[in-house]
Write a structure and sequence with these properties.
Elements (H helix, E strand, L loop, with lengths): L4 H5 L16 H14 L13 E2 L3 H25 L7 H25 L8 E2 L9 H22 L6 H25 L9 E2 L4 E2 L4 H8 L3 E2 L3 E2 L6
Parallel strand pairs: 1-6
Antiparallel strand pairs: 2-5, 3-4
């Protein structure tokens, strides 16, 4: 997936800020990008396999795992903003644009941190999503955001480097804000049994195997594989 000039610039139109999203922008990430890129260690690299996109091992595997998901989210929201659904309001466009900007920042953060260990750019397959329909777009957004939060929750314990774990915690908090915002646009509860374990009142998590099974349905070409993560 090629990064467009539009994405690199991070669009400035419709950027009226809501307090709901103020804490999720570039400022919180900038220092992390520099520090992590400088300290990133190679942990074996990505294993070459002609049948799959191997995410690697150790922290590299976890970072590539997150990088793959952020690629898909950034590509999804980029398409949403470039081709708005029928009847989109000014406020909806501004909010979805802001989420797009966050996802692009997240994607570029992982790409920079991984450097030569990064997996190739993915080619998304969004053929099941009707981008002209508000309902289809927002339900897809909800699915992506919920999957992202569950993925971070389920993989956090696998991260060996403390700095990466702290940054992953910051990013998942942003993804959770996105998930809540999308639910608000859909007129749904911000937290229900689909994302919360009602016995513990904690967010549910998914294993890398569970997440990649879903994520791979949105990838054209070789599927993502992470043997080191059990997926």
């Amino acid at each position: 997936m090629k990064t467009t000039t539009q994405e690199n610039i991070v669009a400035k139109e419709g950027m009226a800020r809501r307090s709901f999203l103020k804490f999720a922008g570039a400022g919180a990430m900038a220092a992390g990008v520099i520090a992590t890129a400088a300290s990133c260690q190679k942990h074996g690299g990505v294993v070459s396999d002609p049948q799959v996109v191997d995410l690697g091992s150790g922290d590299v595997a976890v970072l590539n795992y997150a990088y793959a998901l952020e690629q898909l989210e950034a590509a999804f929201y980029t398409q949403v903003v470039a081709n708005p659904y029928t009847g989109i309001t000014t406020e909806e466009r501004a909010l979805l644009t802001e989420i797009r900007d966050h996802e692009i920042i997240h994607r570029e953060f992982f790409k920079t941190a991984l450097a030569g260990n990064a997996i190739p750019g993915l080619t998304p397959n969004f053929s099941t999503i009707n981008f002209t329909s508000k309902d289809s777009v927002l339900k897809a957004a909800k699915a992506f955001e919920d999957l992202g939060v569950a993925a971070y929750n389920g993989a956090g314990y696998l991260i060996q480097t403390t700095a990466y774990l702290e940054l992953a915690g910051k990013i998942v908090s942003v993804e959770a804000r996105h998930a809540a915002l999308i639910r608000n646009l859909l007129g749904e509860n911000l937290a229900d049994s689909t994302i919360l374990d009602l016995n513990t009142s904690l967010e549910k998590s998914k294993t890398p195997a569970e997440v990649l099974k879903i994520a791979n349905t949105f990838v054209t070409g070789k599927p993502l594989s992470a043997p080191a993560l059990g997926a």
